[in-house]
Specification:
The protein has one domain: NAD(P)-binding Rossmann-like Domain (Rossmann fold, 3-Layer(aba) Sandwich), CATH 3.40.50. It contains seven helices and nine strands; from the N terminus they run E-H-E-H-E-H-E-H-E-H-E-H-H-E-E-E. It is globular, with a radius of gyration of 17 Å.
Length: about 240
Amino acid sequence: MNAKRLEGRIALVTGASRGIGRAVALRYAAEGAHVVAFARTQGGLEELDDEIRKITGAPATLIAENLTNFEKIDQTGAALFQRFGKLDILVGNAAILGQLSPMGHYKPKMWEDVFKLNVHAQWRMIRSFDPLLRASDAGRAMFVTSSVARNPRMYWGPYAASKAALENMVQTYADEMNHTNVRANIIDPGGVRTNMRAQAFPGEDPMSLPAPEALTETFVELAEATCTKNGEIVRAKVEGVARA
């Protein structure tokens, strides 16, 4: 039997109650990591915890909170320091799509809400968890993006702009980490069978898309202590095969 690739690592995953975040949390647990699962939905987190207990025999750490509660992010950082003294892996997965419509039709609050979660919350995590990642012997951070960040398309204004800002922000952080033990990268999952994808493409057959579970290998590779990538945008593999 192969050794677990993330044995003993502490991994915080946002948006962990469903979709890609849930799949990554389960895979990390199976690879030996202790999962700190951050999501809004208590029920979804409890179901995740039940699955993790079946895999590992031990509970996850659950944080049922909205990521835009920035004080909670800071409190989480302090609690992780007190309990573990470090954070080995950070997965910034939680995001919202917002409304798809012409640029001039967005209500200011909707635009601001998209940036509040997709950009500002991600920066607050970097700010709060950077000392914990540096305290690890191999801190690994990764954030989930979309191809629209680099290939804008009509009606995707706030989401595309927020993901472009996220990519720039993470690559700036990665450049600052070049001479440390921390590595930060960006994952583009492509089309995946998630609720957000169904919201964006309501007429699409979801069964034509890979399940979130099929993408977790890339998240493991970027989380490993041996990973040397830094500041890269990595296209997620599907079942171990790189997509074109």
